[in-house]
C-alpha cells in the first residue's frame, strides 16, 4: 500500500518553505546593506550615521550607491584619519646612533677601497687571441 499525502498538506508545506525563503532573503539583503555601516562603526568613522542612512536609501535606489558606501567606510583609517595630514616622524636616539655607526663603517670601507686602488695598479689584461697566433 502506498502512503497517500493530502495535496492540501503539500500546499501548506510549500507555502511554509516559500515564506521561510522570502524572510531569509529579506534578512540577507538588509544584512548585506549594513556591511558598510558595520565597517564604519568598527573604524569609529565620523560619518557612520550618514553611511547607515545612505545604506537604507540605496535599497530604494536599486543598490547603485552601495559600492560607494563601502569605499567611503574604508577611506577612514582608525588612528590616522583620512590620510591627508602630514605626519611628523620623530627619530629615536637609538636610530641616530645606528645611523652614525653606519656612516663610520661606510667611511672606513671607502678608505680601504681607496687604499687598495692606490697600492696595486691594475694590470692590463692580455689578449689571448694574440698568444694563439
TrEMBL record:
InterPro entries registered for this protein in UniProt: UCP028770
UniProt keyword annotations, A-Z: Coiled coil, Membrane, Transmembrane, Transmembrane helix
Coiled coil: 92-119
Highest taxon in the source lineage: Bacteria
Transmembrane stretches, start-end: 12-32, 53-75
Stated name of the protein: GTPase
Organism: Sulfurovum riftiae
